[in-house]
Design a protein that fits this description.
The chain has helices spanning 3-11, 16-37, 40-57, 66-85, 94-102, 114-130, 133-143, 149-156, 160-180. With 185 residues, it is mainly α. The protein folds into 2 domains: 3-92, RNA polymerase sigma factor, region 2, helix turn helix motif (Rna Polymerase Sigma Factor, Chain: A, Orthogonal Bundle), CATH 1.10.1740; 97-181, Arc Repressor Mutant, subunit A (Orthogonal Bundle). One of its GO terms (molecular function) is DNA binding.
Length: 185
């Protein structure tokens, strides 16, 4: 089913929207959530919560890309669940990714810094647009989708060590750009 038809089902409050969403995007959402949480049951709950959140937000939302919309929802729900589980200790999965990015992207501790957060996001987006397609896919695959270095290496035909080095260079490049734009690290 086409995305526009699925969105129309949500707007019509037709329960078939959830079934269609799960059929088309369930595997992708589960994979993304599992990459963060590393527990299938938790990932499945986050996917189900994604359909519930989509039901609650459409209408008024009318996303142009359901894939991006669902991925953003499931990723945020999964990170929230991960934070709740590992608030006092380091964990596997997303924890190591957060630590990798911590050195080049500052943490935003409060809601008062929303504007700064948006500016950092815009700077990261500008930086990503300047990267080669393969580097952009590598960075987004690792830090948005939570893919493992081994999986990324296999997908790009490289070695895990080479992929790790490439990710380090990308993080260093991002850090330099953010520093040039006045973002305090």
């Amino acid at each position: 089913m086409e995305d526009a038809n699925i969105v129309a089902l949500y707007w019509q409050r037709d329960q078939g929207a959830i079934t269609a969403s799960d059929e088309k995007y369930g595997t992708l959402c589960h994979s993304l959530s599992f990459n963060i949480l590393q527990i299938h049951e938790d990932a499945e709950e986050c996917v189900n919560d994604t359909w519930h959140k989509a039901w609650d937000t459409m209408p008024p939302q009318k996303p142009n890309s359901l894939r991006a919309y669902f991925c953003r929802i499931v990723r945020n729900l999964s990170i929230d669940r991960w934070r709740a589980r590992y608030s006092q200790k380091r964990g596997e999965g997303m924890g190591s990714l957060v630590l990798e990015l911590e050195e080049c992207v500052p943490a935003v501790p409060s809601a008062e810094e929303q504007w700064e957060t948006e500016e950092i996001g815009a700077a990261v987006e500008r930086w990503l647009r300047q990267q080669r397609d393969q580097d952009r896919r590598l960075f987004v695959g690792r830090y948005f989708y939570g893919a493992t270095v081994r999986d990324l290496a296999a997908a790009t035909g490289g070695s895990p060590n080479g992929t790790t080095q490439r990710l380090r260079r990308l993080r260093n490049s991002l850090r330099r750009v953010l520093e040039q734009e006045g973002v305090t690290l």
